[in-house]
Amino acid sequence: MLGLKGWQSGEEPMAGLAGDWGVTPCSFPCPPGTTEWTSWFNVDHPGGEGDYESLEAVRFYYRERVCAQPVSIQARTTEWELPEDMGEIVHYSPEKGFWCINKEQPGGKTCSNYHVRFLCPVDAGWSKWGAWSPCSKTCGSGGKRIRRRSCKKSKKSRCVGRPLELQKCARTPCPGTGHGNCSSCLCQDHTLLGTVLTAKGAALANARVSLQAKPQDVLARSDHRGSFSLRGVCAGSGANVSVQLERFAPGEAQIVSTGSRTSSVQVTLRRLERPYMVTHPESKVRVAGQHVAFCCAASGTPVPRKYYWYHNGMLLDRQVYKYNSSLVLRDLQPHQSGVYHCKASTDVGAVKSSPAVLSVTGQGQPICKAEPEEYLIQLPSECFQGTGRSLYYNVGRCPDARCAGSLPDELQCQDGAGHCCRIQRMEVREIQCTGYRLPIKVVAECGCEKCTQSKMLVHGRVTAADNGEPLRFAQIFLGKENIGFTGYQGTFTIDVPPGMQRLVVQFVDRLQKFVDTVKVLPFDPRGGAIYQDIKVMRKKEPVDLDATQDNTVPLGELPGQEPVGEIVIPAGSFRRPDGEVYNGTVKASVTFLDPRDVTTAAAASSDLNFINAEGDLFPLRTYGMFSVDFRGGESNEVLQTGWVEVRMDAEQIRMPEHLQKMKLWSLNPETGLWEEEGAFRQAKKRRGKREERAFLIGNVEIRERRLFNLDVPESRRCFVKVRAYSSEKFIPSEQLEGVVITLINLEPKPGYSSNPRAWGRFDSVITGPNGACLPAFCDGQRADAYSAYVTATIGGEELEAVPSSPKLNPNAVGVSQPYLNKLGYRRSDHNDPALKKTAFQINLAKPNPNNLDEVNGPIYAYRSLRECEDAPITANHFRFYRVEVDKYEYNVVPFKETDLASWTRDYLSWWPNPQEFRACYIKVKIDGPQEYMVRSRSVGGSHPRTRGQLYGLRDTRSVRDLEIYNSSAACVEFKCSGMLFDQKLIDRTLVSIIPQGSCRRTAVNSFLREYLGRHPPVVENNDTAVFNMLAPVDPLGHNYGIYTVTDQNPRLAKEIAIGRCFDGTSDGFSREMKSDTGTALTFYCQEKPVTRQSFFQRLLSSPGDTLTEIRREMRGNEARRPHAAASKPCPINTGEV
Asked: What domain of life (predicted)?
């Protein structure tokens, strides 16, 4: 029974698990509406005083995975037992979490190791009502006022009710002289005192003040402190005041009486912001006769009210379709298939949504093709097939495509998970291998099923660009919302909201050592996790300025080069936020990101894009970014400036056409888009007695800490096709998905394409099933006008590019001649073999459509994006490949780790949960002169549905320890123990570790041996050439030689686990093997004396005799097997593969 000792208000007895988990439901009323369980958390272990799984601790480590107010909690031991079954006294509440105290347990027992999960609401809900607006009239009757609220969106439900409320407001008669329409009321002996402020409370000067009834009649202007006064406005009139200022949206506020002859008003102005699309229409599939709804929504100041919808680029008639921010199409017909997008517009600008594809299939047409596509997997090396001795087998797969399933409401903005073409039936086959038969499951039939929804995550680490110092405990903002903090090592995890098209994240250093950094992070919309290594700029040390004098601050201080420009601050320009002039010492920190230093590209903010007048995302070419931070010398208060000059040296602009296009921009930290601050004008300035230089001069007010940019819009654009492969064999079926490809645009020095003068912009794209197309600047006249520097990473690991020396091989590069020579392909180590091999550089020569050699990639004209994305594998493309130690993976149920949609609900699936992937590795030390292949064989051990059946094989070659002679180690993956896909029973996986050589086991980790002894049944290990165990359920750690990592991305989980295994620690990471640290097993291996031919030599020279010998050995094994099976607790021959 559960102990209730020390129970407080709100705490309940422990409940079992509900729903699909196959145990008791909630013992108290479960919350109404839609809810979902979080993943399981285990942040403490029962050592010391007990096991404390507090909500506060869980939030500290997994802030993004727990909602603000959980409504229920569940707990189980790591052996999957309920607390009541353990007879332990435990405490819990959704508000505090779970705890078990050792001293409270009967009989002196200690608490078990528990993990918990929380139930969170996901219902849509209304925000609180906003304040009432001012009354539309100041006297008489007939006035109205409104208040608004917003809906917290949900993919599963809608808000019920209206977003605004209207109310009549009656007024008393005007105390003075009223206008005929009661729009204003005048009292000559009354005075109105007012202030004009920004949304952040800073004073605004020179704002135009008028009454709402006559906005064209300017009655006053605000002074430098944002203050103004008006005579003749009645104290109790309640009139509305209107305020206007350039670059700000008009503001209104209601007058409030403060005395018999005075009244006051405070007007807040918001900076004008171009529309920004926050909700994009979703691609959908329908059958003819069904209905569909597309929705979009844009933010901005003012809020967009005008929306336009387009079908295949043609504007739809508003009178016919009756649309607003949503477009509804009823009784669909196939001709209505195509691409739809919306455009939102205000007086400030316009923005287009991402396109959504509507597919309408005819009545009676097949929704999904039943016959699976070809999908080849590699078999173990001893399982070659047919006369061609192929090691590849077609297991089939279903196309990753949406289909039209039944929906509860066809007119929802989002279809939720929707329906996809998925596996409906699989068949079991057996493959004959040398000495055994290998089971394999193949796809037999496809059909339309509910899609598997996978979480989209971005992991990463934030460090300084100069020395790698972690950005510790920095605030992370997603738009205006603070979603968490970076960790002690600068690590972070972001849960990408569903439907998001552009992930804009801001990192703010609370210690102000680093510049606030805005990043547009790529993510995989199909689900899974992407790793990002983020660099930030350290703030420049502040210098002292005299606020009463003119000051000049240089921009760019590269050794041996002139500054790019300078900021000129007139005397008396510094002001406090309330508008008061500051005349003391100013601590001025101006950090300039200089594109002439190519290494700074990684630390640049945003992705250098803006929204043009047509609403399209358009690229910028930067000549430098600068961040300013002005503070009072003693008070350290943040200071603002009036208008200052930004001067740019015209000689730094090497492209003459850019002189006329240069503009000054500032970055909107919430949208990650650059907004125009103003144009530059050309002027002359004398430097010294004789030298006169041309400058571009712009003006800007520095009212807030924004990042500024010297940029030029650039329309000469192309796309570059890049693919990533698992090896340098470049096999089409072994392309890697989820690889982050980054392209940095470079401006070469004339005649030296390999020696760039500066970088201009950068872009990152994630590879999909057909590679990636990266936008880049290009030129059709000069092949080397622009060049590109391209890299590829996956999970923090850099991939290698194809070599360009000593001899350039077009077949390996993936681009045919003579176009390859024109592009000037060079790997990063082309001139110096000591350099890294992980990047290549090319000229960005725009393809000539009249030249047949240039119409097949790898560079495509900007209008040919679809052609680039759909290009066949045989078309020209650039290549990266993964450099790995020898390893091989085989799953009985095939699963493509880069495509989470390929997961199958099967008891033999290697990964039983598509939302959380748990990777388990064991570290095996090898004492011997060579590197040896080590195999793990994972078989069902305790579950009645899988006992004795193979899950899969893993082969890994040991890696030599550079510090220890004749020593190597292998980090070998095995199938983790735990719940299978139905989440009902645990399976203790039977794991066999088999070095492939003349090896014998010499040591087993004492902690691991003790653990296995305390968790029966124990598998006997009489054969010293093999190690068998029932894999532990607990995530043990380096003390046991077992390494376990859980993540939403299987590849990332494996990469982290391998890094820890190499390092021999539970929290470190290394790429150099430390064979003597954190090992589980030790084998001694030796080379066999060369007294006879190897098996493969004998098979080639005397196949008949060799096969006869194999049959004889197999018959001998069969004869001995019953005796061995009788003495072992597990009837599995773990050494036969």
From this structure: Eukaryota
- According to DSSP H, which parts of 927-1049 are helical? 1006-1014
CATH architecture of the domain 166-269 equals Sandwich (2.60)
Fold agreement (166-269, 273-361)? yes
pTM of the model: 0.72
Cα 479 to Cα 248, 505, 518, 521, 669, distances in angstroms:
20, 7, 10, 13, 7
User: What would the pLDDT profile of 658-714 be if each residue is shown by its tens digit?
Assistant: 777 888 888 988 888 988 888 888 876 655 544 556 778 887 888 776 788 887 777
Q: Which residues does residue 257 pair with via DSSP β-bridges, in sequence order? A: 263
Half-sphere exposure (Cβ direction) of 507: Cα atoms closer than 13 Å? 34
Q: Distance between CA 124 and CA 1126 in Å, rounded?
A: 61
Which DSSP state fits 6?
T
Name the amino acid, one letter, at 758: A
Q: Rounded to an integer, what is the distance from CA 22 to the centroid of its chain?
A: 34
Q: Does domain 273-361 have CATH number 1.10.10.10?
A: no
Q: What is the mean pLDDT of the chain?
A: 83
Angle at 449 between CA 447 and CA 454, to 5 degrees: 130
990-995 vs 1027-1030, strand pairing mode: antiparallel
| Spatial separation of the C-alpha atoms in residues 738 and 816, rounded to whole Å | 26
Domain spans of the chain, in order of start = 19-125, 166-269, 273-361, 376-410+419-450, 461-536, 549-713, 717-881, 887-1086
Report the amino acid identity of residue 648.
M
Write the Ramachandran bin of 607: left for phi over 0, alpha for psi from -120 to 50, otherwise beta: alpha
Rg value, the chain, Cα: 34
Q: What distance in Å separates the CA atoms of residue 192 and residue 258, rounded to the nearest whole number?
A: 9
Query: Residue 10: what residue type?
Result: G
**Residue range 119-130, pLDDT digits in tens:** 887 766 677 788
CA angle 857/863/865 to nearest 5° reads: 55
Three-state SS letters, 54-107: EHHHHHHHCHHHCCCCCCEEEEEECCCCCHHHHCCCCEEECCCEEEEEHHHCHH
Cα–Cα distance, 489 to 512 (Å, whole number): 17
- Which distant-in-sequence residues (6+ apart) come within 8 Å of 258 by Cβ? 193, 235, 264
Over the stretch 421-430, which tens digit does the pLDDT of each residue have?
A: 988 899 999 9
Per DSSP, the residues of 611-655 read E-TTS-EEEEEEEEEEEEEEEETTT--B-EESEEEEEEEGGG--S
Beta strand 262-269 pairing with 185-198: parallel
At 511-555, the pLDDT tens digits run 889 999 999 998 888 777 788 889 999 999 999 999 899 999 998
